[in-house]
Design goal:
0% strand, globular
Length: 204
């Protein structure tokens, strides 16, 4: 990884900022570096890197603040994170520890299952090859936090890949998988992994 950067400085705020101010700063930068604005620009790669940096800073702040507010969170906790610390879930997904990630997500109280919970469960379903369930989770995450570009990118990429590589989605009740399903699974898993800063399939 690159050298450590103070997450508060990345978002342009101070450690004294309220949770609402943290979220507002994140959303402002997410809109500024949204990939759709740079799709045909020479600055696309730079904007993508900046967006990853902003996402990482926001997640780091959420991680640090979770120790202060507890897993339930207060009225000022982020609606995106639902007041719950998902750092370990993201780490397990990126490391391929899908069962551990799914177990931790299932242990989250239903009242705390906000947008990020649905997004991460969608990532788990992608890794397991349950694309229909993943699409449903991504839809719910986007509906709960429509301005979050990370959730929207995962949703759009999953649907794009499903259309491009032929086929419908598998559900959790599905049986075996074909060679095409395996390819599609790797591509979709790579998409979600990249959304969280990892890289399952490296480009040549």
């Amino acid at each position: 990884m690159a050298d450590y950067k103070d997450p508060y400085k990345v978002l342009g705020i101070t450690p004294n900022a309220t949770d609402d101010e943290v979220k507002a700063a994140y959303r402002k930068l997410a809109r500024k570096y949204h990939p759709d604005k740079y799709s045909d620009s020479d600055l696309k790669d730079l904007a993508d890197e900046k967006m990853k940096e902003v996402n990482a800073a926001y997640e780091e702040i959420q991680k640090m603040r979770s120790g202060k507010s507890g897993s339930k969170g207060g009225s000022g906790s982020s609606s995106s994170a639902g007041g719950y610390n998902y750092y370990n879930v993201r780490r397990n997904i990126n490391s391929g520890n899908i069962m551990e990630a799914e177990s931790e997500l299932n242990n989250v109280d239903k009242g705390d299952r906000a947008a990020e919970w649905h997004y991460l469960m969608g990532c788990v379903y992608v890794k397991k090859g349950y694309y229909n369930d993943a699409a449903r989770m991504f839809d719910m995450a986007c509906n709960m936090d429509p301005s979050n570009q990370e959730y929207r990118a995962a949703k759009n990429q999953l649907r794009h890949n499903a259309g491009s590589y032929g086929g419908g989605y598998n559900t959790s009740g599905g049986g075996g998988c074909s060679g095409c399903d395996v390819c599609q699974g790797l591509i979709c898993a790579d998409c979600c992994c990249e959304c969280m800063g990892g890289d399952l399939i490296r480009c040549c």
